[in-house]
Amino acid sequence: MKGENNNPLTSFSKLFNAQLHFFNVLSYFLLFGCGLSLGVILSFHLKNFSLDLRITQLSLTTRSASPLTPPPPPQSLSHVGHFGLTEFLKPPNVMHDMDDKELLWRASMAPRIPQYPFDRVPKVAFLFLTKGPVLLAPLWEKFFKGHEGMYSIYVHSNPSFNLSEPNDSVFYGRRIPSKKVEWGNANMIEAERRLLANALLDFSNQRFVLLSESCIPLFNFSTVYSYLINSSRSFVESYDLDGPVGRGRYSQRMSPQVKLDQWRKGAQWFEMDRDLAIEVVSDQIYFPVFQKYCKGACYADEHYLPTFVTMKFGEKNSNRTLTWVDWSKGGPHPTKFLSTEMTIEFLERLRSRSQCQYNGNTTNICHLFARKFSPDALYRLLKFAPMVMQFHE
Q: What is the pTM assigned to this prediction?
Protein backbone atom coordinates (compact mmCIF):
# COMPACT_ATOMS: atom_id res chain seq x y z
CA MET A 1 0.00 0.00 0.00
CA LYS A 2 2.83 2.36 0.89
CA GLY A 3 4.45 1.88 -2.55
CA GLU A 4 1.21 2.60 -4.33
CA ASN A 5 0.70 5.94 -2.41
CA ASN A 6 4.16 7.31 -3.74
CA ASN A 7 3.50 6.71 -7.47
CA PRO A 8 1.97 10.14 -8.36
CA LEU A 9 4.98 12.02 -7.01
CA THR A 10 7.38 9.88 -8.94
CA SER A 11 5.47 10.35 -12.17
CA PHE A 12 5.34 14.12 -11.69
CA SER A 13 9.07 14.29 -11.04
CA LYS A 14 9.84 12.37 -14.21
CA LEU A 15 7.54 14.58 -16.26
CA PHE A 16 9.11 17.74 -14.89
CA ASN A 17 12.64 16.55 -15.61
CA ALA A 18 11.69 15.67 -19.20
CA GLN A 19 10.22 19.12 -19.81
CA LEU A 20 13.25 20.76 -18.29
CA HIS A 21 15.55 18.76 -20.59
CA PHE A 22 13.46 19.74 -23.61
CA PHE A 23 13.68 23.44 -22.76
CA ASN A 24 17.44 23.16 -22.26
CA VAL A 25 17.91 21.58 -25.70
CA LEU A 26 15.64 24.15 -27.31
CA SER A 27 17.55 26.98 -25.67
CA TYR A 28 20.81 25.56 -26.98
CA PHE A 29 19.42 25.45 -30.57
CA LEU A 30 18.12 28.99 -30.25
CA LEU A 31 21.47 30.21 -28.90
CA PHE A 32 23.34 28.40 -31.75
CA GLY A 33 20.97 29.87 -34.34
CA CYS A 34 21.40 33.36 -32.97
CA GLY A 35 25.18 32.99 -32.96
CA LEU A 36 25.22 31.68 -36.52
CA SER A 37 23.00 34.51 -37.75
CA LEU A 38 25.14 37.08 -35.95
CA GLY A 39 28.29 35.60 -37.51
CA VAL A 40 26.88 35.75 -41.02
CA ILE A 41 25.71 39.34 -40.54
CA LEU A 42 29.08 40.43 -39.12
CA SER A 43 30.99 38.68 -41.92
CA PHE A 44 28.94 40.44 -44.59
CA HIS A 45 29.42 43.83 -42.95
CA LEU A 46 33.16 43.27 -42.53
CA LYS A 47 33.54 42.45 -46.25
CA ASN A 48 31.76 45.64 -47.24
CA PHE A 49 33.87 47.57 -44.78
CA SER A 50 37.11 46.07 -46.19
CA LEU A 51 36.07 46.89 -49.77
CA ASP A 52 35.13 50.45 -48.82
CA LEU A 53 38.47 50.79 -47.01
CA ARG A 54 40.41 49.62 -50.09
CA ILE A 55 38.51 52.00 -52.37
CA THR A 56 39.15 54.85 -49.94
CA GLN A 57 42.89 54.01 -49.77
CA LEU A 58 43.13 53.78 -53.56
CA SER A 59 41.34 57.09 -53.91
CA LEU A 60 43.66 58.72 -51.41
CA THR A 61 46.75 57.22 -53.09
CA THR A 62 45.62 58.42 -56.50
CA ARG A 63 44.98 61.90 -55.18
CA SER A 64 48.34 62.07 -53.44
CA ALA A 65 50.34 60.73 -56.41
CA SER A 66 51.69 63.10 -59.06
CA PRO A 67 49.57 63.20 -62.23
CA LEU A 68 50.68 60.85 -65.07
CA THR A 69 52.57 62.39 -67.98
CA PRO A 70 50.29 62.39 -71.01
CA PRO A 71 51.53 60.37 -74.05
CA PRO A 72 53.48 62.42 -76.59
CA PRO A 73 51.53 63.49 -79.64
CA PRO A 74 52.10 61.36 -82.78
CA GLN A 75 55.23 62.34 -84.64
CA SER A 76 54.64 64.31 -87.78
CA LEU A 77 55.26 62.32 -90.97
CA SER A 78 57.56 65.08 -92.14
CA HIS A 79 60.07 64.02 -89.45
CA VAL A 80 59.97 60.28 -90.25
CA GLY A 81 62.67 58.94 -92.61
CA HIS A 82 61.09 57.92 -95.91
CA PHE A 83 61.73 54.31 -96.95
CA GLY A 84 60.07 53.37 -100.20
CA LEU A 85 60.70 51.01 -103.08
CA THR A 86 63.65 53.04 -104.32
CA GLU A 87 65.47 52.65 -101.02
CA PHE A 88 64.61 48.94 -100.87
CA LEU A 89 65.95 48.28 -104.36
CA LYS A 90 69.21 50.11 -103.80
CA PRO A 91 71.95 47.47 -103.45
CA PRO A 92 74.37 47.78 -100.52
CA ASN A 93 77.93 48.88 -101.03
CA VAL A 94 80.05 46.09 -102.49
CA MET A 95 82.41 46.33 -99.51
CA HIS A 96 79.85 45.30 -96.89
CA ASP A 97 80.30 43.47 -93.57
CA MET A 98 78.14 40.39 -94.27
CA ASP A 99 79.81 37.00 -93.89
CA ASP A 100 79.28 34.28 -96.53
CA LYS A 101 76.34 32.69 -94.71
CA GLU A 102 74.51 36.01 -94.41
CA LEU A 103 75.38 37.02 -97.98
CA LEU A 104 74.17 33.79 -99.58
CA TRP A 105 70.96 33.87 -97.51
CA ARG A 106 70.13 37.38 -98.61
CA ALA A 107 71.06 36.72 -102.25
CA SER A 108 68.83 33.63 -102.36
CA MET A 109 65.68 35.75 -101.93
CA ALA A 110 63.57 36.04 -105.07
CA PRO A 111 60.20 37.72 -105.70
CA ARG A 112 57.42 35.33 -106.72
CA ILE A 113 55.65 37.94 -108.82
CA PRO A 114 57.46 38.01 -112.18
CA GLN A 115 56.38 41.51 -113.19
CA TYR A 116 58.53 44.31 -111.80
CA PRO A 117 56.62 47.27 -110.30
CA PHE A 118 59.23 49.74 -111.59
CA ASP A 119 61.00 50.63 -114.81
CA ARG A 120 63.81 48.09 -114.91
CA VAL A 121 66.71 48.21 -117.33
CA PRO A 122 68.25 44.71 -117.24
CA LYS A 123 71.99 44.78 -116.67
CA VAL A 124 74.84 42.37 -117.32
CA ALA A 125 77.00 41.66 -114.25
CA PHE A 126 80.68 41.15 -115.11
CA LEU A 127 82.32 39.04 -112.41
CA PHE A 128 86.12 39.22 -112.39
CA LEU A 129 87.91 36.48 -110.45
CA THR A 130 91.50 37.70 -110.10
CA LYS A 131 94.65 37.32 -108.05
CA GLY A 132 95.29 41.06 -107.97
CA PRO A 133 94.30 43.86 -110.33
CA VAL A 134 92.44 43.44 -113.60
CA LEU A 135 95.60 43.43 -115.72
CA LEU A 136 93.90 44.40 -118.97
CA ALA A 137 91.68 47.05 -117.37
CA PRO A 138 92.45 49.79 -119.98
CA LEU A 139 90.97 47.57 -122.70
CA TRP A 140 87.85 46.92 -120.61
CA GLU A 141 87.55 50.65 -119.95
CA LYS A 142 87.15 51.19 -123.69
CA PHE A 143 84.68 48.30 -123.87
CA PHE A 144 82.41 49.76 -121.15
CA LYS A 145 82.68 53.42 -122.13
CA GLY A 146 79.36 55.05 -122.98
CA HIS A 147 77.18 52.22 -121.63
CA GLU A 148 76.71 53.28 -118.03
CA GLY A 149 73.56 51.88 -116.42
CA MET A 150 73.64 48.72 -118.53
CA TYR A 151 76.33 46.80 -116.66
CA SER A 152 77.67 46.11 -113.17
CA ILE A 153 81.22 45.12 -112.20
CA TYR A 154 82.34 42.93 -109.29
CA VAL A 155 85.95 41.97 -108.57
CA HIS A 156 87.06 39.13 -106.27
CA SER A 157 90.82 39.43 -105.71
CA ASN A 158 93.22 37.96 -103.17
CA PRO A 159 92.56 39.49 -99.72
CA SER A 160 96.24 40.47 -99.53
CA PHE A 161 95.89 42.74 -102.57
CA ASN A 162 95.35 46.27 -101.30
CA LEU A 163 96.21 48.61 -104.17
CA SER A 164 93.43 50.91 -105.28
CA GLU A 165 92.23 51.65 -108.79
CA PRO A 166 92.12 55.26 -110.10
CA ASN A 167 89.01 57.18 -109.07
CA ASP A 168 87.86 57.56 -112.66
CA SER A 169 88.16 53.83 -113.43
CA VAL A 170 85.06 51.63 -113.90
CA PHE A 171 86.79 49.20 -111.51
CA TYR A 172 87.13 51.76 -108.72
CA GLY A 173 85.35 50.60 -105.55
CA ARG A 174 84.11 47.38 -107.17
CA ARG A 175 86.08 44.87 -105.10
CA ILE A 176 83.93 42.65 -102.88
CA PRO A 177 84.91 41.09 -99.52
CA SER A 178 87.05 38.13 -100.55
CA LYS A 179 88.89 35.08 -99.25
CA LYS A 180 91.95 33.19 -100.36
CA VAL A 181 91.48 31.06 -103.48
CA GLU A 182 93.64 28.10 -104.53
CA TRP A 183 93.75 26.73 -108.06
CA GLY A 184 91.64 23.59 -108.44
CA ASN A 185 90.29 23.82 -104.89
CA ALA A 186 86.64 23.98 -103.86
CA ASN A 187 87.27 27.47 -102.49
CA MET A 188 87.41 28.53 -106.14
CA ILE A 189 83.68 27.70 -106.34
CA GLU A 190 83.13 29.53 -103.06
CA ALA A 191 84.60 32.65 -104.69
CA GLU A 192 82.34 32.21 -107.73
CA ARG A 193 79.27 31.87 -105.49
CA ARG A 194 80.43 34.93 -103.55
CA LEU A 195 80.62 36.95 -106.77
CA LEU A 196 77.18 35.74 -107.88
CA ALA A 197 75.66 36.52 -104.49
CA ASN A 198 76.97 40.07 -104.45
CA ALA A 199 75.70 40.66 -107.97
CA LEU A 200 72.27 39.25 -107.09
CA LEU A 201 71.80 41.98 -104.48
CA ASP A 202 71.17 44.33 -107.41
CA PHE A 203 67.70 43.49 -108.72
CA SER A 204 68.60 44.98 -112.11
CA ASN A 205 71.31 42.41 -112.84
CA GLN A 206 69.82 39.86 -115.23
CA ARG A 207 72.82 38.04 -116.72
CA PHE A 208 76.06 37.04 -115.00
CA VAL A 209 79.37 36.28 -116.71
CA LEU A 210 82.54 35.02 -114.99
CA LEU A 211 85.87 36.36 -116.28
CA SER A 212 89.53 36.35 -115.25
CA GLU A 213 92.18 39.08 -115.28
CA SER A 214 93.53 37.60 -118.53
CA CYS A 215 90.21 37.73 -120.44
CA ILE A 216 89.40 40.11 -123.28
CA PRO A 217 86.12 40.91 -125.04
CA LEU A 218 85.85 39.84 -128.69
CA PHE A 219 82.95 42.14 -129.61
CA ASN A 220 81.76 45.59 -128.62
CA PHE A 221 79.48 46.13 -125.66
CA SER A 222 76.27 46.46 -127.68
CA THR A 223 76.80 43.08 -129.35
CA VAL A 224 77.68 41.34 -126.07
CA TYR A 225 74.75 42.93 -124.23
CA SER A 226 72.21 42.00 -126.89
CA TYR A 227 73.55 38.44 -127.16
CA LEU A 228 73.25 37.84 -123.42
CA ILE A 229 70.06 39.69 -122.56
CA ASN A 230 68.13 38.13 -125.46
CA SER A 231 69.38 34.58 -124.92
CA SER A 232 66.82 32.00 -123.83
CA ARG A 233 69.50 29.81 -122.25
CA SER A 234 72.50 29.94 -119.96
CA PHE A 235 76.03 29.03 -121.06
CA VAL A 236 77.66 26.44 -118.81
CA GLU A 237 79.89 23.98 -120.64
CA SER A 238 79.02 20.40 -119.72
CA TYR A 239 80.03 17.07 -121.22
CA ASP A 240 80.59 13.46 -120.19
CA LEU A 241 84.23 12.37 -120.50
CA ASP A 242 85.72 8.95 -119.91
CA GLY A 243 89.27 8.50 -118.67
CA PRO A 244 91.34 9.81 -115.75
CA VAL A 245 90.55 13.53 -116.27
CA GLY A 246 86.82 12.89 -116.65
CA ARG A 247 84.96 10.10 -114.88
CA GLY A 248 88.24 9.10 -113.27
CA ARG A 249 87.94 12.07 -110.93
CA TYR A 250 84.60 10.90 -109.56
CA SER A 251 84.48 9.55 -105.99
CA GLN A 252 81.97 6.89 -104.97
CA ARG A 253 81.60 8.75 -101.68
CA MET A 254 79.57 11.39 -103.55
CA SER A 255 76.72 8.89 -103.97
CA PRO A 256 73.75 9.00 -103.62
CA GLN A 257 73.64 12.78 -104.15
CA VAL A 258 75.84 12.53 -107.26
CA LYS A 259 76.15 9.29 -109.22
CA LEU A 260 78.81 8.37 -111.77
CA ASP A 261 76.48 8.67 -114.76
CA GLN A 262 75.60 12.22 -113.63
CA TRP A 263 79.24 13.33 -113.38
CA ARG A 264 80.14 16.07 -115.87
CA LYS A 265 83.15 18.17 -116.84
CA GLY A 266 83.38 21.64 -118.37
CA ALA A 267 85.10 25.00 -118.48
CA GLN A 268 85.08 27.11 -115.35
CA TRP A 269 84.05 30.27 -117.20
CA PHE A 270 80.26 30.47 -117.26
CA GLU A 271 77.44 32.82 -118.19
CA MET A 272 73.99 32.38 -116.67
CA ASP A 273 70.66 34.11 -116.15
CA ARG A 274 69.29 35.35 -112.85
CA ASP A 275 67.14 32.30 -112.13
CA LEU A 276 70.08 29.92 -112.41
CA ALA A 277 72.34 32.23 -110.41
CA ILE A 278 69.85 32.14 -107.52
CA GLU A 279 69.80 28.34 -107.69
CA VAL A 280 73.61 28.19 -107.55
CA VAL A 281 73.93 30.38 -104.45
CA SER A 282 71.03 28.53 -102.80
CA ASP A 283 72.42 25.02 -103.31
CA GLN A 284 72.87 23.27 -99.96
CA ILE A 285 72.70 19.70 -101.21
CA TYR A 286 75.30 19.21 -103.94
CA PHE A 287 77.93 21.84 -103.23
CA PRO A 288 78.69 20.48 -99.71
CA VAL A 289 79.34 17.09 -101.35
CA PHE A 290 81.92 18.66 -103.68
CA GLN A 291 83.48 20.54 -100.76
CA LYS A 292 83.91 17.29 -98.86
CA TYR A 293 84.90 14.79 -101.55
CA CYS A 294 86.20 16.70 -104.60
CA LYS A 295 89.67 17.76 -103.50
CA GLY A 296 93.15 17.90 -104.94
CA ALA A 297 93.34 16.38 -108.43
CA CYS A 298 89.53 16.33 -108.62
CA TYR A 299 89.52 20.06 -109.63
CA ALA A 300 86.08 20.98 -108.31
CA ASP A 301 85.80 24.13 -110.45
CA GLU A 302 85.76 21.96 -113.60
CA HIS A 303 83.00 19.65 -112.33
CA TYR A 304 80.64 21.27 -109.84
CA LEU A 305 78.67 23.61 -112.13
CA PRO A 306 78.63 21.26 -115.15
CA THR A 307 77.30 18.44 -112.94
CA PHE A 308 74.86 20.54 -110.91
CA VAL A 309 73.39 22.40 -113.90
CA THR A 310 73.02 19.24 -116.03
CA MET A 311 71.35 17.35 -113.19
CA LYS A 312 68.85 20.05 -112.22
CA PHE A 313 68.51 22.56 -115.09
CA GLY A 314 69.89 20.87 -118.18
CA GLU A 315 66.94 21.88 -120.37
CA LYS A 316 67.79 25.57 -119.85
CA ASN A 317 71.49 25.22 -120.62
CA SER A 318 73.31 25.45 -123.95
CA ASN A 319 76.15 23.14 -122.76
CA ARG A 320 78.83 25.45 -124.13
CA THR A 321 81.02 28.27 -122.84
CA LEU A 322 81.23 31.78 -124.28
CA THR A 323 84.94 32.12 -123.39
CA TRP A 324 87.41 30.76 -125.94
CA VAL A 325 90.72 29.21 -124.82
CA ASP A 326 93.43 27.29 -126.65
CA TRP A 327 94.17 23.83 -125.23
CA SER A 328 96.01 22.62 -128.31
CA LYS A 329 99.40 22.56 -126.60
CA GLY A 330 98.21 20.28 -123.81
CA GLY A 331 99.08 20.54 -120.15
CA PRO A 332 97.12 21.73 -117.12
CA HIS A 333 96.86 25.32 -118.38
CA PRO A 334 95.73 26.80 -121.70
CA THR A 335 98.00 28.72 -124.03
CA LYS A 336 98.99 32.25 -122.97
CA PHE A 337 99.12 34.74 -125.83
CA LEU A 338 101.93 37.28 -125.95
CA SER A 339 102.27 40.70 -127.53
CA THR A 340 103.91 39.36 -130.71
CA GLU A 341 100.80 37.34 -131.51
CA MET A 342 98.42 40.30 -131.38
CA THR A 343 97.42 41.07 -134.96
CA ILE A 344 94.20 42.11 -136.67
CA GLU A 345 94.04 38.73 -138.41
CA PHE A 346 94.42 36.85 -135.14
CA LEU A 347 91.61 38.79 -133.45
CA GLU A 348 89.33 38.39 -136.46
CA ARG A 349 89.91 34.65 -136.40
CA LEU A 350 88.88 34.43 -132.75
CA ARG A 351 85.60 36.18 -133.48
CA SER A 352 84.29 33.71 -136.07
CA ARG A 353 86.16 30.43 -135.88
CA SER A 354 83.15 28.09 -135.55
CA GLN A 355 79.37 27.69 -135.75
CA CYS A 356 76.90 27.00 -132.96
CA GLN A 357 73.25 27.21 -131.96
CA TYR A 358 71.77 30.38 -130.50
CA ASN A 359 68.05 30.52 -129.64
CA GLY A 360 67.41 27.69 -132.09
CA ASN A 361 69.33 29.28 -134.98
CA THR A 362 72.82 28.68 -136.37
CA THR A 363 75.32 31.49 -135.84
CA ASN A 364 79.05 32.05 -136.19
CA ILE A 365 79.17 34.17 -133.02
CA CYS A 366 79.95 31.44 -130.53
CA HIS A 367 82.46 33.11 -128.20
CA LEU A 368 82.13 36.61 -126.78
CA PHE A 369 85.36 36.51 -124.74
CA ALA A 370 88.80 34.90 -124.93
CA ARG A 371 91.77 34.09 -122.65
CA LYS A 372 94.67 33.88 -121.65
CA PHE A 373 96.33 37.13 -122.69
CA SER A 374 99.59 38.32 -121.19
CA PRO A 375 99.80 41.84 -119.72
CA ASP A 376 102.49 42.66 -122.27
CA ALA A 377 99.89 42.19 -125.03
CA LEU A 378 97.91 45.19 -123.75
CA TYR A 379 99.62 47.80 -125.92
CA ARG A 380 98.88 46.00 -129.19
CA LEU A 381 95.40 45.05 -128.02
CA LEU A 382 94.63 48.73 -127.43
CA LYS A 383 95.94 49.45 -130.89
CA PHE A 384 93.99 46.81 -132.84
CA ALA A 385 90.98 45.77 -130.72
CA PRO A 386 88.94 48.99 -131.03
CA MET A 387 89.09 48.70 -134.84
CA VAL A 388 88.34 44.98 -134.97
CA MET A 389 85.68 44.97 -132.27
CA GLN A 390 84.19 48.31 -133.30
CA PHE A 391 84.12 49.84 -129.85
CA HIS A 392 81.75 52.77 -129.20
CA GLU A 393 79.16 51.43 -131.64
A: 0.79
